[in-house]
Design goal:
212 residues; alpha+beta; 9-stranded mixed β-sheet; two-stranded antiparallel ribbon; 17% helix; globular; NUDIX domain-containing protein; NUDIX_hydrolase-like_dom_sf; NUDIX_hydrolase_dom
């Protein structure tokens, strides 16, 4: 184990705590661990939009794919409340945990390869933020872009009702500066989450009148 390697709390499939293990072992052996995930919804325009981050090309999991607005592993000993720090680290947002709307817990398993299995207990939240995309401060070694998509369009995309969805936002250019751009996003461009995961998010958005 590398001395600087992150340590995670590990669990059994019923979320009973088993101990701690380094990140590489957790993913190599497919050990259950906890993550903090927050979807940012923007009502800046008339139609509700969700923010997607573009993952850095050097990430060990799902490089160069679009994913949850903000997400990160909970380190050993951290609580779910501590996860709110990810908002500041990845996006430059100072957010109090009590401002987040909880969606619930989602257990997700991704078999990446024979040597990489990701089993996460995802603590999922929503945060409303109507600021423009160019106001976000992206963590350079984690996030290389931030895009806005129609919430209704994303729901249709993940349920196979449409094949592409327009995303507008910013990505890091060759000079390290954010450049305004747009993309046509298909399911292949997204980190693969099951439809049931997205349904948890959309149900919560509707419950809190953030999405019709």
């Amino acid at each position: 184990m590398n001395k600087s390697e992150e340590m995670f709390d590990i669990y059994d499939e019923k979320m009973n705590w088993l101990g701690q293990a380094p990140r590489s072992e957790v993913h190599a052996k497919g050990l259950w661990h906890a993550t903090f995930q927050c979807w940012i919804v923007s009502l800046e325009s008339e139609e509700p939009a969700l923010l997607l981050q573009l993952r850095h090309p050097d990430k060990d999991l799902f490089p160069n794919l679009l994913d949850i607005s903000c997400a990160g592993h909970l380190a050993a000993g951290e609580t779910v409340q501590d996860g709110a720090r990810e908002m500041k680290e990845e996006l430059g947002l100072s957010v109090d945990f009590n401002e987040l709307v909880p969606c619930g817990l989602f257990a997700e398993e991704d078999l990446m390869s024979d040597h990489l299995i990701d089993r996460e207990f995802c603590h999922v939240f929503i945060y409303r933020c109507d600021q423009s995309l160019d106001k976000y401060v992206l963590q350079a070694d984690e996030v290389t872009g931030l895009f806005k998509v129609s919430a209704a369009g994303l729901e249709r995309l993940v349920h196979g009702e449409i094949e592409e969805l327009k995303a507008e936002g910013y990505r890091t250019g060759g000079n390290g500066q954010l450049e305004e751009t747009s993309l046509l996003v298909s399911l292949n461009d997204l980190v693969p989450h099951p439809a049931a995961y997205y349904d948890l998010v959309f149900q919560t958005l509707r419950k809190h009148a953030l999405f019709v």
